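Notebook, bench 3.
Goal today: get a predicted structure for ITA2B protein from Grallaria varia so we can plan the truncation constructs. The sequence was checked against the plasmid map this morning, with no discrepancies at the termini. Length recorded as 172 residues. Pasting the sequence as submitted so the record is complete.
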Amino acid sequence: QGQEKLSCNPKKENGTHVVLCELGNPMKAGAQITVDMELSVSGLEDMGDAITFQLQLRSKNSPSPSNASVTVTVPVEAQAEMELRGNSLPDTTVLPTGWQGVEGSRRLEDHGIKVEHVYELHNKGPSTVSGVTLRLAVPHQLGGRILLYLLELGTDGGMNCTHHPALNPAQV
């Protein structure tokens, strides 16, 4: 008939986390109550694909053989939205029309204009992520000729980077 907020108290009982909710005192014999509960549980990243709750209705008045517990299994699905941002420094590069690279040179300026590409991978949540793989394809050749000469790859923030075999082939 009416809706009321329950007063619930978390506590530890026999080494497990228990939430006790007072449904009514006194409660009339034969009363029927529907309860909607919303539980917020953190740290589920390593819990697998489901979490199990034991639910039990207990009466303080008299022990009842119907105090059996019910097991409820809820599927767990982590969600995280990833965002990749990138830019180039400088954002536009134009080589002079008569420019030629110096074959065999170890000087950077003899191979073209330096362009730095910076990419940032952001987790917009709500869950944390681990084991993310980012594959970035860079067009380093065009028509059999070098388009971009890849010098180095680097990461910040505890990420691992696997280098492409065409990275700095002339050891400039």
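The CA atoms of residues 99 and 112 lie 9 Å apart. The first strand starts at residue 7 and ends at 13.
Flagging this for group meeting.
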